[in-house]
Write a sequence for this structure.
């Protein structure tokens, strides 16, 4: 992962094809009739009836079950692997390790760094050591327990805060810095601080979070001769194809990856994993299909996390709210491989508010723990945790309303990109309209009057955010097929990871072709039958794919209108499509059902091809957000109840109000997890192992932890420049301001500022006791 | 490196494999103490015969109104048998340790985690999975409500959420929001569709009242 979010992390490791130059620049939509509705999903039936087939659901005749053995130590070298007992156990068909022939398991595997598949030098708990395939998953687990591995245990480092101490154990011989300190600077911070009336400085920390999608990572691998098919739970089929083909030394054409349904990713499934290569090798060895789904415990250790962040922020402000200088220092932990542990931590500091003098320093560090992977808005929720609490403290210090302080500093250009203007920035409207809809001023007045009841205190808080990506861009190529009976196929490579991509794209086709979205059948996410697409992530899927889908539909529309103009003997410019008919805008009497066009019947179907054009030059495309919440804190127990939440979001055009709202609520829910409940706990002193590798001890928000009262307020500024559909991403911005908004509300309620996540009852009673408020 | 404490940990974990076998073999007797379990690993006990982990037993399962005669290993979970043996893959597995609820099914009308239920335990119960809520190809009211309210994103927890809601509504036809939040709190949704799930359960209650009760 990169520290520059505008060089997209979700494209790393991919050789991107060029998109052919687009022939026509589509005018932005004005008013739409289908796009923007609140529409249930086109695949809703499949998802609620149990008929949607997720990779883990696939069963095949003769299929075996794969399982992987992970290193139990955070740092060890494997010196011997004895699989003799495992190999003779009932049902066991194949065993694979770096010490077992065939030695394909020793071939290079690239996952952040180039290593061999079963690298004897294990630098994190859970690093793959061996694998088996057996008739049942129970037998596979039995066999894993029977494998005898000799480890030479090495000293470990699992607390990145100690990584640069002189006697710290080394994760890699080159040292514990992943890369040199990264410095960003504009203006002169010393001069800026000298001009300030108030300067505040504070340290912040966010704990490591684990993605834990509901469907664990996994796949089914099957060979047909030399051709491999993988049904994979992934955000990007082409990314998996790239990784697996490289690891196995195979041509792309022989690796087919299918990813129709997948049970959540959040960034953890943007790339191929060792499990897919292992499944393919086991399937080859046994000449059987192999299903390999990671255990829940494995998903905590080896397939990604949001790294912990240690941050210090110093900000100067004038009495009138002008921010004069910001200085930020942040470190994060990539884990045992270079994986962007500090990536984008500083982006909101650099770009969310107007400030001439900014300096940031980022340090990415190695520890003996599983590698980080992008996690819903990498770096941003962490950076916002620091910046947005600081803004709250500054507002109080200068006696200004927190919303007003932010409004005062709304930027109109992207300062971090050299003062490039945004296509649109709805930040001011998010702040002002969000505050009005939430009843911000009223709530604060009410709480001042009656916010205390026994040990219970009420408070409100807010925070803002922006997401450095979310504009999408090339490449994308989409095919739309229109049949003689008026039905439509949409063929696209992108995955629908649960955000409603397929439904949005069906609505785009329907908008242009005047058909019902349910008449659009979608073929997607299959390297064997769809075009190249980048993984679905970075909140860029809708802004990337929807213009390409629109272009493909418009290509079909052009052909239909040309056929109709010839048959109706009218000027093509007067024709349009509506409700399955060609109609004249000049003369309502001129109309013909599409199914009666002879030219269409002769051709059987029409094929439209659409490409994603480039983004506007010299402009930045970013989504913006402001969120508001009300909490109730019991100062006796430290329990926090989130009573209500409002998310005001500028993500450009709302494509489907129903799924948009769901994204906002989902982002808030995940942010509640960051702020209140989630934390990877490593046994720092004794074993270095993660001690909460399960959902009982690693706490996701349940329905009882989130308010039933959530409001989504779309700020929908017309963006005629960003792309031809006017959409920006919503998935990631929805989780960026949440946790600091809660922290600010807790401060408002109690007068105690908690600067480290998660603010669970234990942390809060301790903080209250220290402040004498308990 | 034999003196390293981590190495001892590793051997310990392998020994636990034997203990686990002992644990499983005593499941049916209801007798289980730590010492008994470790002795069982070392030598066969008197009393009930020890069943090897891969020895199969005959069970009869009633699933969605059909009866299945199956040979199962005593350690096989109900979720495994439903998904991998009967190929009823609507029931999902998220954790296999009773934490997430993705595998929720109804047993005699009550929501139950199928991953923590042994298939042999499920004999004699009426089991309903998400497939069993359908009437032919038509969705049941809870399923219909989940579509209308967009009460899911990736859809992987959804079967479990739907079965939990079905169980809740069978027990409480008109639950208020607090009852819904408690009734559904045993089912995790990482995508965070909770607010829409509350709406869907309310809508499902309406649909059931209107005659769509399954």
């Amino acid at each position: 992962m990169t520290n520059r979010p505008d060089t997209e992390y979700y494209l790393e490791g991919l050789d991107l094809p060029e998109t052919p130059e687009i022939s026509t620049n589509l005018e932005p939509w004005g008013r739409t009739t289908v796009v923007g509705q609140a529409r249930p999903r086109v695949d809703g039936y499949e998802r609620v009836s149990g008929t949607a087939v997720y990779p883990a659901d696939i069963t095949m005749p003769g299929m075996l079950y794969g399982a992987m053995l992970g290193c139990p130590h955070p740092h060890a070298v494997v010196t011997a692997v004895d699989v003799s007992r495992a190999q003779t156990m009932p049902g066991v068909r194949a065993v694979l390790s770096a010490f077992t022939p065939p030695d394909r398991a020793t071939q290079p595997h690239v996952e952040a760094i180039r290593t061999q598949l079963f690298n004897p030098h294990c630098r994190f708990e859970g690093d793959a050591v061996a694998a088996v395939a057996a008739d049942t998953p129970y037998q596979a687990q039995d066999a894993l327990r029977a494998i005898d591995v000799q480890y030479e245990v090495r000293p470990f480092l699992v607390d990145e805060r100690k990584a640069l101490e002189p006697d710290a154990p080394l994760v890699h011989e080159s040292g514990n810095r992943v890369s040199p300190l990264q410095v960003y600077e504009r203006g002169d911070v010393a001069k800026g601080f000298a001009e300030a009336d108030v300067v505040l400085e504070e340290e912040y920390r966010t704990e490591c979070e684990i993605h834990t999608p509901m469907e664990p990572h996994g796949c089914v691998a099957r060979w047909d001769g030399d051709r491999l098919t993988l049904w994979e739970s992934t955000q990007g089929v082409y990314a998996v194809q790239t990784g697996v083909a490289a690891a196995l030394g195979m041509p792309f054409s022989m690796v087919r990856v299918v990813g129709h349904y997948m049970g959540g990713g959040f960034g953890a499934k943007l790339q191929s994993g060792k499990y897919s290569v292992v499944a393919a090798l086991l399937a080859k060895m046994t000449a059987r299909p192999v299903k390999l789904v990671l255990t829940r415990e494995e998903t905590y250790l080896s397939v990604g996390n949001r790294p912990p962040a240690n941050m210090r922020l110093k900000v100067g402000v004038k009495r009138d709210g002008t921010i004069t200088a910001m200085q930020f220092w942040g470190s994060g932990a990539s884990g045992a491989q270079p994986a962007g542990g500090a990536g984008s931590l500083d982006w909101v500091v650099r770009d969310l508010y107007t400030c001439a003098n900014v300096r940031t320093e980022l340090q990415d560090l190695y520890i003996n723990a599983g590698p980080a992977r992008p996690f819903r808005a990498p770096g941003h929720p962490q950076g916002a945790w620091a910046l947005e609490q600081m803004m709250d403290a500054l507002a109080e210090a200068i006696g200004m309303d927190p919303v007003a302080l932010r409004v005062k500093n709304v930027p109109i250009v992207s300062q971090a990109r050299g003062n490039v203007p945004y296509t649109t920035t709805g930040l001011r409207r998010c702040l002002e309209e969000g505050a009005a809809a939430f009843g911000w001023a009223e709530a604060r007045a009410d709480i001042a009057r009656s916010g205390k009841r026994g040990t219970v205190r009420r408070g409100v808080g807010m925070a803002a955010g922006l997401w450095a990506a979310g504009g999408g861009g090339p490449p994308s190529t989409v095919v739309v097929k229109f049949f003689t009976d008026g039905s439509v196929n949409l063929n696209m490579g992108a995955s629908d990871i649960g955000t409603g991509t397929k439904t949005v794209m069906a609505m785009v086709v329907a908008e242009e072709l005047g058909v019902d979205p349910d008449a659009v059948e979608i073929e997607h996410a299959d390297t064997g039958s769809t075009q190249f697409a980048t993984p679905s992530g970075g909140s860029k899927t809708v802004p990337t794919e929807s213009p390409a889908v629109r272009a493909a539909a418009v290509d079909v529309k052009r052909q239909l209108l040309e056929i109709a103009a010839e048959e109706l003997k009218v000027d093509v410019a007067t024709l349009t499509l509506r409700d399955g008919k060609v109609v004249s805008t000049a003369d309502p009497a001129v109309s013909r059902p599409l199914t009666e066009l002879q030219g269409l019947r002769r051709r059987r179907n029409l094929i439209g091809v659409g490409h994603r054009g480039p983004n506007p030059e010299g402009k930045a495309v970013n989504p913006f957000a402001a969120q508001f919440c009300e909490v109730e804190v019991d100062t006796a127990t430290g329990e926090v109840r989130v009573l209500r939440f409002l998310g005001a979001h500028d993500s450009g055009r709302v494509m489907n109000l129903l799924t948009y709202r769901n994204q906002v609520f989902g982002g808030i829910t995940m942010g509640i997890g960051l702020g209140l409940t989630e934390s990877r706990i490593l046994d720092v002193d004794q074993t270095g192992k993660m001690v909460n590798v399960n959902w009982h001890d690693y706490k996701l928000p349940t329905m009882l932890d989130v308010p039933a009262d959530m409001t989504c307020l779309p700020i929908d500024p017309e963006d005629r420049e960003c792309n031809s559909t006017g959409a920006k991403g919503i998935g990631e911005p929805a989780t960026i301001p949440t946790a600091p908004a809660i922290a600010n509300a807790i401060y408002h309620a109690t007068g105690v500022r908690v600067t480290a996540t998660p603010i669970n009852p234990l942390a809060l009673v301790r903080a209250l006791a220290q402040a004498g408020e308990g | 490196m034999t003196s390293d404490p981590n190495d001892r940990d590793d051997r310990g974990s392998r020994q636990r494999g034997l203990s686990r076998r002992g644990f499983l073999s005593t499941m049916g007797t209801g007798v289980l103490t730590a010492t008994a379990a470790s002795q069982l690993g070392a030598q066969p006990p008197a009393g009930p015969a020890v069943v090897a982990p891969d020895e199969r037993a005959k069970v009869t399962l009633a699933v969605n109104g059909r009866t299945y005669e199956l040979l199962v290993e005593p350690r096989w979970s109900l979720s495994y048998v439903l998904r991998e043996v009967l190929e009823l893959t609507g029931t999902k597995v998220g954790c296999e340790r009773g934490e997430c609820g993705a595998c929720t099914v109804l047993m005699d009308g009550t929501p139950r985690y199928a991953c923590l239920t042994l298939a042999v335990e499920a004999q004699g119960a009426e089991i309903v999975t998400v497939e069993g809520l359908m009437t032919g190809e038509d969705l049941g009211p809870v399923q219909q409500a989940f579509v209308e309210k967009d009460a899911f994103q990736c859809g992987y927890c959804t079967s479990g959420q739907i079965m939990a809601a079905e169980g809740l509504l069978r027990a409480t036809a008109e639950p208020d929001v607090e009852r819904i939040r408690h009734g559904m709190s045993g089912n995790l949704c990482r995508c965070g569709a909770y607010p829409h799930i509350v709406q869907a359960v309310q809508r499902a209650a309406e649909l059931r009242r209107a005659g769509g009760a399954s």
Observations:
- The mean pLDDT of chain A is 94.
- Chain A touches chain B through 74 residues (CB under 8 Å).
